Amino acid sequence: MPLVHCPELAVFAPDRAAKVKLFGSRRFFCDLVCLRPGQSHKPHTHAGQDKISYVISGEVIFTDDGAEVPGVPGDAMWSPAGTVHGVRNPGPRDAVLLVFMAPHPSPEQFGGTPPEGA
To answer: Which end of the chain is least crowded, N or C, by CB within 10 Å?
Structure first.
């Protein structure tokens, strides 16, 4: 079983939110989303996937179907399939989120035959 220490893996891009792939299978993925102050992951939706975003560090503002919800370390936001969601870092510090999504939106990248029910 792979073990990772998420804070050590955070990377940031100067002009956009950065993603770090941690784990994935045909059934799910788990990434870090790293945001500098002022950066965002603009509101969007996933028709067939649920997403959970957990704040590791920093402070963020989640968008949840038009409502703005503040998030601090230890908070988790669930975005069911079809929900318009996003996140932004109002600053002044960097923010890191742990993001899970299931089912995986691109399971074909793992090759082979999908397991029953995947």
So the answer is: N
The pTM (predicted TM-score) of the whole model is: 0.89
What CATH number has the domain bearing residue 87?
A: 2.60.120.10
Number of domains in the chain: 1
Q: Containing domain of residue 89, as a range?
A: 33-104
Q: Which of 14, 35, 22 is nearest to 86 (CA)?
A: 35
Give the contacts of 26 (CB within 8 A, at least 6 positions apart).
103, 104, 107, 110, 112, 114, 115, 118
Per-residue pLDDT tens over the stretch 45-70: 999 999 999 999 999 999 999 999 99
Backbone angles phi, psi at 67, to 5 degrees: -85, 145
